[in-house]
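Reopening this ticket.

The earlier resolution said the output was attached, but the attachment link was broken on my side. Pasting everything inline this time so it's all in one place.
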Amino acid sequence: MGLLGFLLLITIVFSFTSVQTWAAKKAVDWFNNKYDSRVSLAYFKYSFPNNFTLEELYLPGEKRDTIIYAQHLNFGFSGFYSASNTLSASDISIEKLRFNWITEEGDTTSEFQKFIKKFDSGKPRDPNAPPFQMEIGDIDITDGMFRFENVNCDSCSRYWVKELNLEIDNFDLDGSYVSGDIESFSAKERYSLDVYHLEGEVGYLADRLYAENLELKTSRSYIKGDIALKYDSTAAFKDFINQVSIEAELDEDTRIESEEIMFFASAFPDFDRFAVAGEINGIINDLKTKDLVIELGESTRLRGDIALKDPTNVDSIFLDARDLFINTTPADIRYINGLFSDSTLPAMIDQLGNVNFSGDFTGYLKDFKTRAVLTTDVGTVNADIAFHQPDTTLRNLTYKGDVEVEEVNLGLLLQDSSLGRVSARLALDGMGLDPRFMNTQLKGQIPLFEYNDYAYSNMSVNGRIQKGYFKGRFEAKDPNLRLVFNGNASFGKDTSTYNFTAKIDTADLYALNFTPDTVSRVSTELDIDFVALNYDKWQGSINVTNTMFEKARNFYFFEDIKIESKGLDTTRSLTVRSNILEADVSGNYTLASIAGAFNYHLRKFVKSKRPMPEVPAGNFNFDITINNTQLLTEIFMPELIIEPNSRISGEYHSHTAGLNIDVKSPGFEYQKNTVAAIDLQYNGANSRSELGFRVAGVKLASGFEIDSIFLGNFYYRDTLFYNLSWIF
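Inline output:
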């Protein structure tokens, strides 16, 4: 009876809060003495049967810095089971929790780790003993703070979480591992991102960190789905992109800010804010996706099954994409290219408009194979081709495969109004895109090519373009142009080489928009072999045979025309042989210097405000005999008739600016006005010129006749004298 009374007395005494607090402080003192710590407690309360309340719980470190502080702590203690080494509690609520896991300057371990080590008895742990476990029903943390940092390491991860609020159910601690159902979590992180809301079933286990039914909202991102990070050990996080495997299934509402990923993986490309959905598996440097959808830039959308290797290394990104679909714009293409490459894209990219890509892609960004359809505002391209770009320029870009072009608007793409749409089916094998430098074998059909407002059709090509030089065969079977070209032709900037034969069975110049005459057809054969320097000096031959020209009322046939030029240095010659005319030019000249010499002397007789041009360089002789121009004049100027055997000869010497011309002609007729027996002599030099002009007779269409006319001009310095006489 006495013992029972004593126990009853003890129970009554300990029911008072002041006594509970006194006893708790005594227990704290014992704890501090035993473990050399400085734990303090301001208030303690026990409520029957198993509820405990603590206030102002404080644990400082050895340097008086706070390790743990809780303004208010309430928990229901369910018991400790020694067999399983498990502590069980019903609910825990904590207000104003402060937890600092900091390794101070000069230390190798944190203050918290030092405190935990005090509980180590030094005896070897029984390997068969179960790890410490904790099972808690609900945890509620309000206005918490957690700081994790090693001040001795600039590259180590650090976190400073404030305004932490957490509601978690079914909390389970098993040794070093933890899991639970987060009902609500929010916090502000000083160094990375703020979490506005997080919920889901989460866990940190020996081989994975996972979040199922996750919903995460930060200041700039929203993630919904299932995510798991798998690893062999936690040391894998030191090489996150190569040793931590991601398994994720993301909802279509997911939006991610690149900068928030870059807090944890700095090499991640800065896509700004982008959307992502689908299944993702693998480490970052070897990712596989299924039903992946990505939206980034202003309007780029990507969909497909993609395997991605080494995406954090610009020079070695490898993609294997199946059933890939991409919709983008020129602005986004330039933006995304700038994230991975320093190369400059050509200006024609801006003309593409809306771009759609569908197909497969395998390889690196500069070394890949693709079978795809590319649709743009300027046309469609079907390709089964491989590309390799060894450097940042497009000059050394190599490619091999088949390309089908469907109504691509070259005029819009190249900003050339003379060009229009083109369609082609070509097999390509070569290098470069600029015709001046490329080396490419091409073979195929060209069913459509618009030039000068005419749509050419039914063409084919088989040849090679090499550094501005085409060698091969080109054939056109268009209704208005039947042409076969076989040979070589260059289109270099300074030097051109031509060695080919061409047969034009028919060319309707009116239908092709080269002449306004409704009936204007030509056929001819060409055999050309020459080299031209700057298009002013050339050497070689041009042979034109079997030429026929059809007008509305007549057919014209030209016999052979042969043109030959010799010499590319200071001594050159040019000969023309045909039934129309014969011409010989020899000396040191260019086509420009010949025109310049005649223009220089013509300016003496034509008043102009412009100053006299410089004396053209060169020395040459010329002799031209007009045999029969009827064919040419009937075609191009039918009202003009030049009598056969008209001759023009002379010479030019630049050191005196001397030009001598001798013109003799039986005469000509123009619009029924006739001039007979023309004799013209011109001798000109720097400061003086003499012109003598005599005709035997003039008969005008009106019937007026002149027996003869003589005109004499003498030019000295800036004065012109003339003498004109005629006989009626």
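Reporter confirms the inline version is readable. The radius of gyration is 47 Å. The chain has a mean pLDDT of 85.
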